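BUG: 3D viewer hangs when loading the predicted structure for this chain

Environment: internal workstation, default settings.
Expected: structure renders.
Actual: progress bar stalls at 90%.

Input used:
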Amino acid sequence: MDVKCRGAFLLLVVAAAASTFGVASANKEWSTVAGNWNHTGADFWWQRHPNGTQAASKRLIVGGDQNWRFGFNYTNWAINNAPFFLNDTLVFKYDPPNDTTFPHSVYLLPDFWSFQNCDLRRARKIGDVNAGGGDGFEFVLKRWQPYYFACGQHDGIHCKDGLMKFAVWPLIRWFY
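Structure tokens produced before the viewer hung:
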């Protein structure tokens, strides 16, 4: 590095250190204002707060009032209803096959590539064509991992052309 770059880098490091020191100094009284923030007393955080993964789970109907149907953009629905948390429940509702509706199903895809390409070869069916009738069926987000959902009808045509796919990655619910 030349002298100008070293000087600029040194200035950046000094500014970052000064900012960190300024924030730390401004918050030096947290222990008396916000209680025992470093958990050294008898009042530990797990005694004050409910279990973060079970306390306030949501129950969401996939697609909202549109349910699980051809032509609705479920990726946008997932973005608009994010964030999702561990132990949230997704409810898939759709009409059983009849003369006026298309049959639908729900598959859990194994990875992003399968999701992007609507490749159902290694997917696991979690809801057949009759599972979504009535109150639908529930899927609980139990693990911290990405979940890729898609309709598997007509060899993935509903996924490819009907926008019937979405992905979620549940977060861990933290309480402070």
